[in-house]
Structures are given as C-alpha cells and as structure tokens.
C-alpha cells in the first residue's frame, strides 16, 4: 500500500500539481513574482506608485518676471519673442514638480510658489498626474513673433491628451492646472 501511494504521488510531483513553496536560505517562502504587462508608465513609476524626486529644477523664483511675462496685456510679454507658456495651480511647486526634461529648467515661479512660466523645449510632470510639454509653434510666423508656445498636457498614467493648444503670453490667461 505504501508503494502504491508513492507511485501515485510521483506523477503528481512531476506534473507540478503537487508543488511546495520555494524557500530562501532562511527557510521562509519566497514572495510570488509579478509577471505580465505591469511596467512603469513614466520614469520613476511602477506598480507601487511613483517615486520621482521633486523640486523646482532650476526654475527661478521671481514674482516680477512671472507677472511681467504672464499677465494678459503685459507689454513685456507681448515684446518678449521667446516661446513660453504660463501655468496657474494651487500646488506648492517644490513638492509637486518632477521628471524634468532637460534636467535644469528655464523659467520663473511667482511669489506664491504655485504659478510658473516655462520656455519652449521643456517637459515637466506635475503631481505625478499631468505631464506638461511646452514647444515652439511650427509653421506659424505670427505665433512665433508673439512668443506663443504649443502646449500639450497628458493625464498620467494613461497618457490621455488633455490639452493641445497654442498659448500666447500677453494675450491668454495662464493655463489652469
């Protein structure tokens, strides 16, 4: 009878139907490994959430420059031909900006530390929920002369395009985030 019981267990063990948990050197069962299409949606993100470092990444705190470049009907904004876009948020930027490209940004933050201007050619993530792209406007000489920028904002982690617009300093209100 013992022999017949052993012979019954051998095929089960070989087929994998009878499996024991694997263990590490301490004799504790290993954690199951995740497999499948679970991967990061952006640098620093994964199944456990995001862990990108936050900061201002070179954005200068200068309330005067922010308001001069972002206030509708501002003379400086209308005469500064650099492509740029202004943003208005209620979040303290130093704790909520992450994943900059390039690593050192060019732009300004106002005195409240919640509003900012970015020049073209830059990308930043806000609150790990929005990825903001500011680029030069292509094929529109008037927009380029006015310092307008092409702004695209993606909702993360799905990368859904939320905003795709041409924004012009001195003519438009800052984009509310």
From TrEMBL:
Protein name listed in UniProt: Mig1 protein
Keyword Signal carried by entry: yes
Keywords recorded for this protein, A-Z: Signal
Leader peptide range in chain numbering: 1-19
Record has Signal as a keyword: yes
